[in-house]
Amino acid sequence: MLASHDFIHRGQIRAVARLRIMDMNQSRPRHPYLGLLVALVACFAVAGLGGWATASSVGSWYATLAKPAFNPPNWVFSPVWTLLYAMMAVAAWRVWRLDGRLGSLPLGMFALQLALNLAWSVLFFGLRAPLAALIDVLALLVAIAATLALFMRRDRVAGWLMVPYLAWVMFASVLNLAIVQLN
Protein backbone atom coordinates (compact mmCIF):
# COMPACT_ATOMS: atom_id res chain seq x y z
CA MET A 1 0.00 0.00 0.00
CA LEU A 2 1.25 3.44 -0.92
CA ALA A 3 1.53 6.20 1.63
CA SER A 4 -0.29 9.51 1.03
CA HIS A 5 3.02 11.29 0.33
CA ASP A 6 3.59 8.90 -2.61
CA PHE A 7 0.36 10.19 -4.21
CA ILE A 8 1.38 13.79 -3.59
CA HIS A 9 4.80 13.14 -5.12
CA ARG A 10 3.24 11.50 -8.21
CA GLY A 11 0.80 14.40 -8.50
CA GLN A 12 3.69 16.87 -8.41
CA ILE A 13 5.52 14.96 -11.12
CA ARG A 14 2.41 14.98 -13.33
CA ALA A 15 1.93 18.72 -12.73
CA VAL A 16 5.53 19.46 -13.70
CA ALA A 17 5.17 17.31 -16.83
CA ARG A 18 2.01 19.23 -17.80
CA LEU A 19 3.77 22.56 -17.32
CA ARG A 20 6.64 21.43 -19.54
CA ILE A 21 4.24 20.35 -22.28
CA MET A 22 2.36 23.66 -22.03
CA ASP A 23 5.65 25.55 -22.16
CA MET A 24 6.75 23.68 -25.30
CA ASN A 25 3.41 24.41 -26.96
CA GLN A 26 3.51 28.11 -26.12
CA SER A 27 4.59 30.22 -29.06
CA ARG A 28 7.70 32.28 -28.53
CA PRO A 29 8.68 35.28 -30.61
CA ARG A 30 11.17 34.31 -33.30
CA HIS A 31 13.14 37.54 -33.04
CA PRO A 32 12.81 38.67 -29.42
CA TYR A 33 15.11 41.69 -29.76
CA LEU A 34 13.06 42.97 -32.67
CA GLY A 35 10.23 43.31 -30.14
CA LEU A 36 12.48 45.43 -27.93
CA LEU A 37 13.24 47.66 -30.90
CA VAL A 38 9.52 48.01 -31.67
CA ALA A 39 8.76 48.87 -28.02
CA LEU A 40 11.56 51.45 -27.94
CA VAL A 41 10.41 53.02 -31.22
CA ALA A 42 6.79 53.17 -29.99
CA CYS A 43 7.71 54.75 -26.66
CA PHE A 44 10.15 57.24 -28.14
CA ALA A 45 7.72 58.11 -30.94
CA VAL A 46 5.26 59.14 -28.23
CA ALA A 47 8.09 61.01 -26.50
CA GLY A 48 8.95 62.80 -29.75
CA LEU A 49 5.35 63.75 -30.49
CA GLY A 50 4.88 64.90 -26.91
CA GLY A 51 8.09 66.90 -27.13
CA TRP A 52 6.90 68.50 -30.33
CA ALA A 53 3.63 69.55 -28.63
CA THR A 54 5.57 70.78 -25.61
CA ALA A 55 8.19 72.78 -27.52
CA SER A 56 5.60 75.23 -28.80
CA SER A 57 4.76 76.43 -25.28
CA VAL A 58 7.66 75.86 -22.89
CA GLY A 59 9.52 79.09 -23.68
CA SER A 60 6.41 81.21 -24.05
CA TRP A 61 3.10 80.31 -22.44
CA TYR A 62 4.44 77.89 -19.80
CA ALA A 63 7.05 80.42 -18.68
CA THR A 64 4.27 82.89 -17.81
CA LEU A 65 2.30 80.48 -15.61
CA ALA A 66 2.40 80.73 -11.83
CA LYS A 67 3.99 77.52 -10.55
CA PRO A 68 4.30 76.00 -7.08
CA ALA A 69 7.58 76.12 -5.16
CA PHE A 70 8.13 72.38 -5.76
CA ASN A 71 8.13 72.79 -9.56
CA PRO A 72 11.44 71.34 -10.82
CA PRO A 73 13.61 73.31 -13.25
CA ASN A 74 12.78 72.68 -16.91
CA TRP A 75 16.06 70.82 -17.58
CA VAL A 76 15.01 67.99 -15.19
CA PHE A 77 12.11 66.82 -17.33
CA SER A 78 14.01 65.64 -20.40
CA PRO A 79 16.42 63.19 -18.70
CA VAL A 80 13.70 61.88 -16.38
CA TRP A 81 11.29 61.23 -19.25
CA THR A 82 14.04 59.68 -21.38
CA LEU A 83 14.79 57.16 -18.63
CA LEU A 84 11.10 56.51 -17.98
CA TYR A 85 10.31 55.88 -21.66
CA ALA A 86 13.24 53.46 -21.90
CA MET A 87 12.06 51.60 -18.78
CA MET A 88 8.49 51.47 -20.11
CA ALA A 89 9.73 50.01 -23.41
CA VAL A 90 11.76 47.32 -21.66
CA ALA A 91 8.77 46.47 -19.46
CA ALA A 92 6.45 46.12 -22.47
CA TRP A 93 9.05 44.04 -24.30
CA ARG A 94 9.45 41.68 -21.35
CA VAL A 95 5.69 41.08 -21.28
CA TRP A 96 5.46 40.71 -25.07
CA ARG A 97 8.25 38.15 -25.27
CA LEU A 98 6.43 35.86 -22.86
CA ASP A 99 3.64 35.17 -25.34
CA GLY A 100 4.57 36.97 -28.53
CA ARG A 101 1.13 38.54 -28.95
CA LEU A 102 0.52 42.25 -29.31
CA GLY A 103 -3.21 41.83 -28.68
CA SER A 104 -2.93 40.73 -25.04
CA LEU A 105 -4.73 42.65 -22.29
CA PRO A 106 -1.50 43.84 -20.60
CA LEU A 107 -0.12 45.25 -23.86
CA GLY A 108 -3.49 46.74 -24.78
CA MET A 109 -3.51 48.57 -21.44
CA PHE A 110 0.08 49.63 -22.09
CA ALA A 111 -0.98 51.12 -25.44
CA LEU A 112 -3.88 52.94 -23.74
CA GLN A 113 -1.65 54.52 -21.12
CA LEU A 114 0.83 55.49 -23.84
CA ALA A 115 -1.98 57.25 -25.74
CA LEU A 116 -3.11 59.04 -22.57
CA ASN A 117 0.50 60.04 -21.93
CA LEU A 118 0.70 61.67 -25.36
CA ALA A 119 -2.72 63.26 -24.91
CA TRP A 120 -1.51 64.97 -21.73
CA SER A 121 1.30 66.78 -23.59
CA VAL A 122 -1.07 67.81 -26.36
CA LEU A 123 -3.69 69.06 -23.90
CA PHE A 124 -1.37 70.82 -21.46
CA PHE A 125 1.20 72.32 -23.80
CA GLY A 126 -0.27 72.07 -27.30
CA LEU A 127 -3.77 73.29 -26.45
CA ARG A 128 -2.70 75.15 -23.30
CA ALA A 129 -5.53 73.55 -21.35
CA PRO A 130 -4.21 72.59 -17.88
CA LEU A 131 -7.67 71.60 -16.56
CA ALA A 132 -8.28 69.20 -19.47
CA ALA A 133 -4.75 67.87 -18.95
CA LEU A 134 -5.52 67.32 -15.26
CA ILE A 135 -8.53 65.18 -16.17
CA ASP A 136 -6.36 63.26 -18.63
CA VAL A 137 -3.56 62.70 -16.12
CA LEU A 138 -6.03 61.25 -13.61
CA ALA A 139 -7.16 58.74 -16.25
CA LEU A 140 -3.48 58.15 -17.06
CA LEU A 141 -2.75 57.30 -13.42
CA VAL A 142 -5.49 54.67 -13.45
CA ALA A 143 -4.20 53.25 -16.74
CA ILE A 144 -0.61 53.12 -15.47
CA ALA A 145 -1.68 51.41 -12.23
CA ALA A 146 -3.70 48.86 -14.22
CA THR A 147 -0.78 48.28 -16.61
CA LEU A 148 1.60 47.85 -13.70
CA ALA A 149 -0.72 45.31 -12.04
CA LEU A 150 -1.17 43.36 -15.29
CA PHE A 151 2.57 43.44 -15.99
CA MET A 152 3.35 42.31 -12.45
CA ARG A 153 1.20 39.19 -12.98
CA ARG A 154 3.12 38.30 -16.15
CA ASP A 155 6.64 39.38 -15.19
CA ARG A 156 7.61 40.92 -11.87
CA VAL A 157 10.59 42.77 -13.36
CA ALA A 158 8.30 44.35 -15.96
CA GLY A 159 5.95 45.43 -13.19
CA TRP A 160 8.74 46.96 -11.13
CA LEU A 161 10.03 48.80 -14.19
CA MET A 162 6.69 50.66 -14.29
CA VAL A 163 6.85 51.83 -10.64
CA PRO A 164 9.08 54.91 -11.22
CA TYR A 165 6.79 55.96 -14.07
CA LEU A 166 3.74 55.73 -11.81
CA ALA A 167 5.54 57.70 -9.10
CA TRP A 168 6.62 60.43 -11.55
CA VAL A 169 3.12 60.77 -13.00
CA MET A 170 1.71 61.00 -9.47
CA PHE A 171 4.10 63.90 -8.89
CA ALA A 172 3.16 65.41 -12.28
CA SER A 173 -0.52 65.14 -11.31
CA VAL A 174 0.05 67.13 -8.13
CA LEU A 175 2.07 69.66 -10.12
CA ASN A 176 -0.69 69.89 -12.75
CA LEU A 177 -3.32 70.42 -10.02
CA ALA A 178 -1.22 73.16 -8.42
CA ILE A 179 -0.84 74.94 -11.77
CA VAL A 180 -4.61 74.77 -12.31
CA GLN A 181 -5.20 76.23 -8.84
CA LEU A 182 -2.59 78.99 -9.22
CA ASN A 183 -3.74 80.10 -12.64
**What's the main sheet like?**
none
Rg, Cα atoms, Å: 22 Å
Q: Spans with pLDDT under 50 lasting ≥5 residues? A: 15-26
How many strands? Answer: 0
Oligomer: single chain
| Apparent shape | elongated
User: From N to C, what is the helix and strand string?
Assistant: HHHHHHH
Averaged pLDDT: 87
CATH top level label: Mainly Alpha
Strand content: under 5%
Do you know the CATH architecture?
Answer: Up-down Bundle
Cα-to-Cα separation, first versus last residue: 81 Å
Structural class: mainly alpha
The CATH topology assignment is: Ferritin
Number of domain units = 1
What does this structure look like?
This protein is elongated. With 183 residues, the chain is mostly helical. Residues 15-26 have low confidence and may be disordered. The chain has a single domain (30-182), classed as Ferritin. The protein has helices at 4-25, 32-58, 61-64, 74-99, 105-126, 130-154, 156-182. It is built from 7 helices and no strands.
